[in-house]
Amino acid sequence: MKIIAITSRLYLREFVLDDANHFYDLNNDKDVIKYTGDPPFKTVSEAERFIKNYSEYDNYGYGRWAVCLKDSDNFIGFCGLKFHPEEEITEVGFRFFKNQWNKGYATESAITCIDYGFSKLNLTEIYAHVHVNNLASQQVIKKCGLHLLKTIQYDGQPTYLYSIKKPKDL
After folding, report:
1. Every domain of the chain and the residues it spans
2. Quick one: CA torsion of 104, 108, 113, 119, rounded to 10 degrees?
3. Contact of 65 with 121, CB cutoff 8 Å
4. Residue 155 has what pLDDT?
5. Which of 10, 63, 127, 169 is most exposed, with minimal Cβ within 10 Å?
6. Quick check: 50 and 108 in contact, CB under 8 A?
7. Which residues contact 94 (CB under 8 A, 6 or more apart)?
8. Residue 35 CB coordination number (10 Å)
9. Which class in CATH covers the domain with range 3-122?
10. Using CA atoms, how far apart are residues 107 and 76, in angstroms rounded to an integer?
11. How does pLDDT run across 31-54, given as a tens digit for each residue?
């Protein structure tokens, strides 16, 4: 298990095959995936295939990471950085179980990922795509210091594009 970052309450690590049940459950909650454009997994085996074929770490040196509670090791969702080769941008994104919403985990993990992107990966700018109706995620992104650039179509949906530039002191 490769740990990427640790915060006061959480740690972020690369996905492992044992995460398949969590992914299946996470992506089968219609409220969790409401604004993502992702279909739910049909089976746990499909979630396992997703993890087995997840090549972001090898291709780009980063990706989405499992977010776990430090005190219990419970998987509560994922957060991380995703490179979009067609746009040549890296975005921060997250998804958490509903019973973990409104506890600050999305903000805490997203800030950690942004810091990691700037300090460890030497990225100069990080973006976020947020569906125009996803008010909760918009609040998280704003708390992380990203600013609205424009409204775009992303995955066929009306989406706000946010960004944050690397601070000069990093």
Report:
1. 3-122
2. 160
3. no
4. 83
5. 169
6. no
7. 67, 77, 78, 79, 80, 106, 109, 110, 137, 140
8. 19
9. alpha beta
10. 14
11. 999 998 889 999 999 999 999 999
